[in-house]
Design brief:
Distance between the termini: 39 Å
Radius of gyration: 38 Å
Number of helices: 23
Structural class: alpha+beta
Shape: flat
Largest sheet: 5 strands, antiparallel
Helix content: 40-55%
Length: 646
C-alpha cells in the first residue's frame, strides 16, 4: 500500500512538473509565425503591475493589446535591421558586459567575505612578521627552498626571540623581520590578514605564502577597533635659537589654557605646513594609519570633543593635539556597500575568482590534469623571454588539446595564446614550468569566456533582463527614427496639426497675485491690512521680518487658479482675500488682475503640440504595422493565462 502511494505521489509530481514546463512553452500569440510565449507575457505583466497607474492597463485584454503592439514594433525594428547598426551593437555590448559581472560570480562567496571583513574590522591586531621573499612565479625548487628557510626561522624565533632574529637575519632585500604595529581588515594582503586573525595572541603562525613570499606572523595583541579620529595639532621642531621647541610648545599650551583659540595659534606657530593653514586639522585617520605610534596613542587617549592634550614628543617633534571628532565603527548595513566595493579591488577578489574557476571546472566537467604538452615544449625557446618568439611555420597542429563542453581548444590555440602573452622584461624560468603555468591561465580564461558566451542560456534571470534591454534599446532607436525625429522635423505638419486643434491649447484662468504665508495668524492679519493699503511687498518685509527671523514669505507671480499656494474655493476677484489656513500655514492673497482663459500661440504650446502630433503619427503607424504583420492569438492559452492572473 505504501509503495503504491509513493508511486502515485511521484506520478503526480512528474505530471505537474511536465505541465508547468509545457505551460512555460505555451504560445500565446505569433507575429508572422514567430512565437511569443505565455510565460513571457505573464512575467512582464506581473513585473509591471504595480507600476501601472491606469487601471485600464491592468485589464488583461488591454495589456495584451499593448504587448502585441510592443512586439510589432520590435518586429519592425529587426526588419529595418536596426539591430545591425554599429552604435546599437556597441551600446548593447557595453551593457551586456556590465550586466554579466553581476551573474558570473557566486554572490554567496562575496556575502561571506563582506561579513568576514566587517567582523575583522571590529578588531585591531598588533603583530611582528618574518618574510622570506621570492618571486610570485618562482620555480618549485626555489619555492621549496624558501619554505624550508621560513620553517627554520620560525623554529629559531620561537627559541631565540624576535629581536635576536631581527638583528641576525633582516637585510631588507630577501629576508625581512619587522614590527608592523596595529592594523585591521584591508590594511594587509588578504592571506596575511587571514593568518594574523587566525593566530592566537602570543603565538607564531604556521608558514604561509603571499605574492611576496613565505611569512610567519606573531600576534602581540588584539583589541577592539578604536574607530576613526579627526584631530588638530600644533607641532614644533627643535631649531637653533634661544628657546627650545619644548619651551615654546609649553608657552603655546599655557596660551590655550588661558582661552586663546587653538586654530589661531596653530596658524601662527605650527611648523606642520600641510595643516597649519587649516588651524592644524589633519585628515581623519584610524589606528595604524599614521607613522607615529606615540602621536596615535595620545590622540586616541582624548575622551571628549574639544579636549586638548598636554605637550608631548614624537619622532617628528613636539605636539599639542585637540580632538575634533571621534567615531566608532559604523553598522554592518551602513558599511556593506563600501565593503563590497573594497573587496572587488582588494586581494580578496582572488578568492572570488578562485571559487568561480573551481565551480566552472565542475560545471563543464573539465579535468585539471595536465594533457600532453610536448608538442608545445618542442617549439618554445628562450626568445619568449625577449618577447621575440614566434610560432614556427611548420607548426600546424589542430589536434584537440582540451574541450569545454562543445568547444574544442587545439594546440594551435594554445600556441597563439603563448605568442600573445609575451612581454618585455619577464623573469626567466624553466620552459616546462612556464608552459604549465600558462596552460592553467589559458584554460581558465577560456572557461570564463565560455561561461560569459553561454550565460544567457544558463541563467534565466540574466536572459530576461538582457532580453528586455535588447528590445528596449531597439525600441528606442525605432521610435526615434520613425516617430520622434520625424515629428520634430515636420514643421509644416506641426503647424497644420496646431491649426486643426487650436481649441486644445489654451491658458486657463490665471491670476496676477501676491500670496503671503506665515506660521502665525497675527502676522497674516497685519499683512492683510498692509496689502489693503497698497503697501509694497518690500515695505511689508521691512516692517514684519528681520535679519534674525522671517515671519512672512511671499509669492508674487502670475498663477494658475489651481496653483499649490492657492486654496480651493478661492473667490476669483480683484482685491485682498479672506485669511485662510492652507498647507499648514496661514495665508492671504491679493489678486491684482484676473486673466481670462485665452488661446495659446503655436510657440507657447509647441511642446504639447509635438507630443500630440507624435501620438497621432504613432497611431497611424501602428495601424500600418498591424496590416503588415500577421498576429494570431491562441485563445485557449489566453483563457488559461487569464485564469492564472485573476
Amino acid at each position: 500500500m505504501k509503495l503504491n502511494m509513493l508511486r502515485l505521489t511521484l506520478f503526480v509530481f512528474f505530471v505537474s512538473n511536465f505541465m508547468v514546463k509545457a505551460q512555460n512553452k505555451s504560445v500565446l500569440f505569433t507575429v508572422n509565425d514567430v512565437p511569443v510565449y505565455a510565460s513571457d507575457f505573464k512575467r512582464v505583466y506581473n513585473k509591471n503591475l504595480d507600476l501601472v497607474k491606469d487601471d485600464s492597463q491592468k485589464d488583461i485584454d488591454n495589456y495584451l493589446d499593448l504587448f502585441i503592439k510592443y512586439k510589432l514594433k520590435i518586429a519592425e525594428a529587426r526588419a529595418l535591421e536596426l539591430d545591425k547598426k554599429t552604435s546599437y551593437i556597441r551600446e548593447f555590448g557595453n551593457y551586456k558586459n556590465q550586466l554579466a559581472k553581476n551573474y558570473l560570480n557566486d554572490n554567496k562567496v562575496t556575502d561571506q567575505l563582506v561579513e568576514e571583513a566587517y567582523q575583522r574590522l571590529l578588531t585591531e591586531i598588533d603583530a611582528n612578521h618574518i618574510l622570506v621573499r621570492i618571486e610570485e612565479n618562482a620555480s618549485p625548487q626555489d619555492s621549496l627552498s624558501a619554505y624550508k628557510e621560513i620553517q627554520k626561522l620560525r623554529g629559531r624565533v620561537i627559541n631565540e626571540g624576535f629581536e635576536a632574529i631581527k638583528q641576525d637575519v633582516h637585510n631588507g632585500r630577501t629576508i625581512f623581520a619587522e614590527q608592523l604595529g596595529y592594523f585591521t581588515a584591508f590594511k594587509m594582503v588578504y592571506p596575511f590578514e587571514t593568518a594574523a586573525y587566525n593566530t592566537a595572541v602570543g603565538q607564531w603562525s604556521q608558514p604561509f605564502r603571499t605574492q611576496f613570499g613565505f611569512h610567519v606572523v606573531f600576534v602581540k595583541d588584539k583589541r577592539k577597533n578604536r574607530g576613526d579620529l579627526t584631530v588638530a595639532h600644533i607641532m614644533l621642531t627643535d631649531k637653533d635659537g634661544q628657546q627650545t621647541a619644548q619651551q615654546r610648545i609649553d608657552e603655546i599650551y599655557k596660551r590655550i589654557q588661558q582661552g586663546e583659540a587653538f586654530g589661531a595659534l596653530a596658524k601662527q606657530f605650527s611648523e606642520d605646513k600641510s595643516s597649519s593653514s587649516k588651524g592644524g586639522q589633519l585628515n581623519t585617520f584610524s589606528s595604524g594609519q599614521l607613522s607615529s605610534k606615540a602621536f596615535e596613542e595620545v590622540a586616541f587617549g582624548l575622551k571628549n570633543i574639544n579636549d586638548v592634550s598636554k605637550p608631548f614628543k614624537s619622532e617628528f617633534g613636539y605636539h599639542i593635539v585637540k580632538l575634533i571628532d571621534k567615531k566608532g565603527i559604523k553598522s554592518f548595513e551602513e558599511l556593506e556597500p563600501k565593503l563590497k566595493n573594497k573587496i572587488k579591488r582588494d586581494s580578496r577578489s582572488k578568492v572570488i575568482n578562485d571559487k568561480r574557476i573551481e565551480a566552472l571546472y565542475a560545471k563543464y566537467n573539465v579535468s585539471k590534469t595536465l594533457p600532453n604538452l610536448q608538442p608545445i615544449t618542442s617549439i618554445l625557446n628562450d626568445n619568449y623571454f625577449k618577447s621575440s618568439w614566434t610560432i614556427p611555420d611548420h607548426f600546424k597542429n589542430e589536434t584537440v588539446l582540451v574541450s569545454i563542453k562543445d568547444k574544442p581548444l587545439t594546440y594551435m590555440d594554445f600556441a597563439k595564446f603563448l605568442a600573445k602573452s609575451q612581454r618585455q622584461r619577464q623573469s626567466k624560468i624553466d620552459l616546462n614550468q612556464l608552459i604549465k603555468n600558462n596552460y592553467k591561465v589559458f584554460l581558465e580564461s577560456h572557461l570564463k569566456a565560455y561561461q560569459e558566451e553561454n550565460l544567457e542560456n544558463e541563467n534565466e534571470e540574466y536572459a530576461h533582463i538582457l532580453g528586455e534591454y535588447r528590445d528596449g534599446l531597439l525600441l528606442f532607436d525605432l521610435m526615434e527614427t520613425q516617430i520622434w525625429n520625424v515629428s520634430k522635423q515636420d514643421s509644416v505638419g506641426l503647424q497644420s496639426f496646431y491649426n486643426a486643434h487650436k481649441e486644445n491649447y489654451f491658458h486657463d484662468v490665471r491670476l496676477d497675485a501676491i500670496v503671503a504665508s506665515s506660521a502665525e495668524k497675527s502676522m497674516i492679519k497685519k499683512t492683510a491690512k498692509l496689502l489693503s493699503k497698497n503697501t509694497t511687498v518690500d515695505q511689508i518685509k521691512g516692517q514684519l521680518n528681520s535679519d534674525s527671523k522671517i515671519n512672512v514669505s511671499f509669492i508674487t507671480d502670475t498663477l494658475n487658479v489651481n496653483h499649490q499656494a492657492l486654496p480651493k474655493g478661492l473667490d476669483i476677484k480683484t482685491g485682498v482675500s479672506k485669511i485662510f489656513k492652507h498647507n499648514d500655514a496661514y495665508s492671504v492673497v491679493k489678486i491684482i488682475r484676473v486673466l481670462p482663459k485665452t488661446a495659446k500661440t503655436f510657440e507657447e504650446s509647441k511642446g504639447n503640440v509635438i507630443a500630440d502630433y507624435q501620438a497621432k503619427i504613432e497611431k497611424e503607424w501602428l495601424e500600418k504595422l498591424a496590416k503588415k504583420y500577421t498576429v494570431k492569438i491562441n485563445q485557449d492559452t489566453l483563457k488559461q493565462v487569464k485564469d492564472e492572473l485573476k
